[in-house]
Amino acid sequence: MFRPITLTPLRYPPMRHLKSSSLASRTIVSVLIALCFAAPSRAADRPPNFVLVLADDIGAQELSCYGNKQNNTPHLDALAADGMRFTTCWATPLCSPTRVELMTGRYGFRTGWNGLFGRVYAPKPGDPNYDLGTAQVTFADILKSRGYTTGLSGKWQLSGTVPTLIHDCGFDEYIMWAYTYNLPPGVKHTGAFQKGGKTTSRYWNPCIMENGQYKPTKPDDYGPDIFNDWTIEFVKRHKDQPFIIYNTTPLTHPPHVETPDPQHPGQRKPGTWKNNVEYLDYLMGKLVKAIDDAGLRDNTYIFFVGDNGTAGDGKGHTVEKGVHVPFIARGPGIKPGSVTDALVDCSDFTPTMADLAGAKLPGDRTLDGVSFAPVLRGEKPTARQWIFSYLHEGRLIRDNRFLLDGAGKLYDCGTRRDGTGYKDVTDSKDPDVVAARERFAEIYQTHPAPKHEEKPTTQPKGEE
Prior knowledge:
The chain has twelve helices and 18 strands. The chain has helices at about 25-35, 75-80, 95-105, 110, 130-135, 140-145, 225-235, 275-295, 320-325, 350-355, 375, 430-445, and strands at about 50-55, 85-90, 150-155, 175, 210, 215, 245-250, 260, 270, 300-305, 325-330, 340, 345, 385-390, 395-400, 400-405, 410, 425.
């Protein structure tokens, strides 16, 4: 049975803890770190680059390479044809717990992140887990120990101290969609708000912060374009050194507003779900082309994954559709056109990137993730025997055959991974079923649900 891993202690660069230091001081520290851990001069010895794209609110069933007949996703299909498509990748049912799990390699019962930021089952101000920059070690921290330049673009929606919240989590540079509470004192957003006026726009005329500074936008500026273009420029600027760019695109989170029309510059396409999915695909095609044009195809891993299931079709619920997300990987050693049933969840990305980069994992904490690097290289058919997810007090688990959802329903999935053909065996006394239930119960003993928290009778004031 899979057990969490704990490795040898590693001392991390101190930049992320210098809350009171100036940006200049942090920059100096970053330069010193890069010099101390400089990559070997020979290209063959240089660790690979990583472009990690986290799409918002999109289940696996939305891409044509996963069988969708309505949405056209040729660029993501091409990425899968050039790399490996995972049939069974799990996130959590909501964005905040997924994002913390992805960045730390740890489940919510260890980090305290079992719910949405600012709501129940998430750390509150004063909780030692609240400030990610001091409580957790992220994949950015880990890769910096190998001399990587680190960047983030897009959505954050997590805790931290303004204006250094993202720098404190190990990222050298960032551009983010900001809420009003992310803005510097005295600065007001001059652009658009979403319908209802509580939340700043993430799409047209968005609210943007770049490296601690407010970045005004115009009515025809489209947030996902800004983040994608910034990602491309980051790749170009750092192509001669190891880098990781974490692109957390707002697409395809509601509201599903109009998108640019790539075929008719300056015009817009209607704000439909299909058009939002297809514009996400267009941006991925643009990003992949830029990587290849920069000559980085042979030493860059591209990971495309979702943060939870589709809004209105699984998101927010402890059912398989709420956690089953697309995951496509392309990079060195990956056989083109590969499709794998290897079980993966979002805790696995941190140890995998560390493995591929030759970086050590922190030894002062337990990680739940398991490296799937051997799967990418075709050395093993699977990296782990089961995967796990959670939201609030609900938990889900599955192995290669059985699935136990948050309502306590147990399913025999056979060899299926797409939600079809499953058999409800909740009340079965079949020996295989009984054995599966006992295995899952044992794992649940070491992966506890959080203590009960009362939901507020009204949503807290502020932004959603």
